[in-house]
UniProtKB/TrEMBL annotation:
Domain of life from the UniProt record: Bacteria
MF GO annotations: antioxidant activity; oxidoreductase activity
Gene3D superfamilies in the record: Glutaredoxin
Segments forming domain Thioredoxin: 9-144
InterPro entries per UniProt: AhpC/TSA (IPR000866), PRX-like1 (IPR047262), Thioredoxin-like_sf (IPR036249), Thioredoxin_domain (IPR013766)
Protein name, UniProt field: AhpC/TSA family protein
CDD domains, sorted: PRX_like1 (cd02969)
Length: 184
């Protein structure tokens, strides 16, 4: 496992389109999942301890953000050949276990992860209603262990600001996690 941090937010960067299969048997595109006040695109996986530490908080925040017109999609781009826990069947299991309120899709070719410049899991990209990047930071102070209850909800607060104003906070703390498992 290689620990990575996300780069600084490139404010205004346009969200690349995608067309990916979900664990529910449907296909999802950028415009099809965008909410009226924004979109959270996140790169996650099943095996990463950083994701496991925050998956319940991701579900909570995505569910609450939906009430503010911000929708979300979770993309799994790791190569499951070396990480069987990240297989499509296991993606289905994880989505059901945690009752994902967002589509969980597979970027088998890894083209979408490359287009976004994803570097780790979790990697969060928060877009406004014009699908311009406004947030590229962490969920909260969690690392490989879940942070204590009551910590600042960085991602949630940032996306509420994006929903209200169309702009994200200028100061953002990078997300960190396991590196994307690229195909050879």
């Amino acid at each position: 496992m290689v620990r990575m941090e996300t780069p600084v937010c490139d404010f205004g960067w346009p969200a690349p389109d995608f067309d990916l299969p979900g664990v529910d048997g449907k296909r999802y595109s950028l415009k099809g999942v965008a909410g009226p006040n924004g979109l959270l695109v996140m790169f996650i996986c099943n095996h990463c301890p950083y994701v496991k530490a925050v998956i319940e908080r991701i579900v909570r925040d995505v569910d609450e953000l939906r009430q503010h017109g911000v929708h979300a999609i979770a993309i799994m781009a790791n190569d499951p050949a070396d990480y069987p826990e990240d297989s499509f069947d296991n993606m289905k299991r994880v989505a059901e276990q945690y009752r994902f309120p967002m589509p969980y899709v597979w970027d088998e070719s890894q083209a979408v992860a490359r287009a976004y410049g994803a570097v780790c899991t979790p990697d969060f990209f928060g877009f406004n209603n014009r699908l311009e990047l406004q947030y590229r930071g962490r969920l909260d102070a969690s690392r490989k262990e879940t942070a204590p209850e009551g910590v600042r909800r960085d991602l949630f607060e940032a996306m509420l600001e994006v929903a209200r104003t169309g702009h994200g906070p200028k100061d953002q703390i990078p997300s960190m996690g396991c590196s994307i498992k690229w195909r050879a």
